[in-house]
């Protein structure tokens, strides 16, 4: 039965980590995957997480099953973070949240749920989008198309093109939007542009699916999340996937959530019952530890304040790296303009490096980036940046 199976291609992002791990050069640098490293090149264990884990270790509890939808305290804390603590959507019980296995798990629950209740819908993702979006929605049974988004000439959003795409979508289509820190381009919409997008989505009868994996890495936690409450205020329906992989540096714990906004509390209860069926038939219920850590931090005032401070530290360090990257490249590659890297938002820079240049970086310098030229600025630090700049100047 397996004899005719063809070899699948490497994952465009995690496959780079595989190649990186296999590289024996001690000076290798991984700018591929979206992971934040500190200035020593280490994935941080946040102090707020360490403290929450110490508290949890004092109250060691048996590992019974969580409810299908996850830890109640976690789901509540996520809703308050995502929609705002005093959101009318929460008061009216119109939002339901299920704990998910990371942001990817949240997208998958949402995709399977939509496939069941909007089976013929067309799904639209940005051009370009996170490498896994298309495969994930296609895998759930949808046909996936792109909407116009990035303009390589301006290195910003082709907003007129995006609006034209939105207006051309058939009613009932699912439109996947990056709430903040667009992956891979780092080019975000302005608050005014979001207003136009929300209007087009609502008037066009589209189903918005907001993917928010980088809340807090743009302008701040509340600022980055603002678009979610604006969409929710427009009336719904709305799906929101979020992740704590990056913002809590909890990658391997796989903590995320899917929230769905319905028209009434009664409708929301029916939605939740169906989301639970999706979860139950996929993996039954989520794991306990990561959800407990995040819920403890979000609901304990001192830990919450510490988290906000630590997240700000990560955000600021990334910005510093953007500035250094631009300044140093100015010296090493005069005549090449990388000023746009300063304007990009979040962990990534769509650097403009070609597939061939990326290949040279990998083969000749053991520096790993995504084939599309996406580099993770959050993996640069004061010790590796000169090597990265020298190598980029060479391949340019
Ligand atoms: C990325 O885009 O690198 C991250 O979201 C990690 C992943 O799962 O691809």
Report on the structure:
The chain contains 15 helices and 13 strands. It is of the alpha/beta class and 396 residues long. The chain has two domains: 14-45 and 304-395, Aspartate Aminotransferase, domain 1 (Alpha-Beta Complex); 65-299, Aspartate Aminotransferase, domain 2 (3-Layer(aba) Sandwich). A seven-stranded mixed sheet has the order 2-10-9-8-7-3-4, sandwiched between helices. The protein has a two-stranded parallel sheet with strand order 1-12. The protein has a two-stranded antiparallel ribbon with strand order 5-6. Helix 12 packs across helix 15. The mean pLDDT is 97. The chain binds (2S)-2-hydroxybutanedioic acid (LMR). Residues 13, 33-34, 130, 132, 183, 213 line the site of (2S)-2-hydroxybutanedioic acid (LMR).
Bound molecules: (2S)-2-hydroxybutanedioic acid
Q: For the residues shown, what is the average pLDDT? A: 97
By DSSP (H or I, 4+ residues per run), the number of helices equals 15
CATH topology of the largest domain: Aspartate Aminotransferase, domain 2
Radius of gyration: 21 Å
In CATH, the homologous superfamily of the largest domain goes by the name Type I PLP-dependent aspartate aminotransferase-like (Major domain)
Q: How many strand units?
A: 13
Structural class computed from helices and strand pairing: alpha/beta
Domain Aminotransferase class I/classII large: 27-392
GO molecular function, one term: transaminase activity
Keywords: Aminotransferase, Pyridoxal phosphate, Transferase
Subunit structure: Homodimer.
Task: Please give a quick description of this structure.
This protein has helices at residues 14-22, 47-58, 72-83, 88-91, 102-117, 131-139, 159-168, 191-203, 221-233, 265-282, 289-299, 301-332, 340-343, 355-365, 385-395; strands at residues 29-30, 95-101, 122-127, 143-148, 150-151, 156-157, 174-178, 207-212, 238-243, 255-261, 348-350, 367-368, 374-376.
